[in-house]
Amino acid sequence: MMKVKIDKAKIFVKARFKSEGSVLRETVQAVGLGFETRCELKSAEAAEKVAAVVRNAENGCYVMQTILHPTPVERQFTLNGEVFDPEGFPKKR
């Protein structure tokens, strides 16, 4: 769209996660520890034109923007066709 020629692009993404607790005791908790990205570009275009492409790519990326900015999550559950609230039941001990 911007008519900027990128000859080669390599994108590297590293995601770090951990989980703790027990599935059987219902204490499991997953945590995202962070993400790292590295973008290696080759282009004969002026650096400011390539920078504009990179900014637009990141700003237009749904995944990147969801990670960078807290996003509301609406959750609904049904069980056998009826509304179901899993938090309304006692947890195992």
Total count of helical runs of at least 4 residues: 2
Mean pLDDT, rounded to whole units? 95
What shape does the CA trace take? elongated
Specify the structural class: alpha+beta
Order of helices and strands: EEHHEE
**C-alpha termini separation:** 57 Å
Record field, number of beta strands: 4
- Low confidence ranges: none
Question: Main sheet, how many strands, which sense, barrel?
Answer: 2 strands, antiparallel
Strand content: 25-35%
Rg, nearest Å: 21 Å
Overview of this structure, please?
The chain has 93 residues and is of the alpha+beta class. The protein is built from 2 helices and 4 strands, in the order ββααββ. The strands form 2 sheets. Strands 1-2 form a two-stranded antiparallel sheet. A two-stranded antiparallel ribbon has the order 3-4. The termini are far apart.
Summarize this, please?
By secondary structure, the protein is of the alpha+beta class.
Short descriptors:
33% strand; two-stranded antiparallel ribbon; single chain; 93 residues
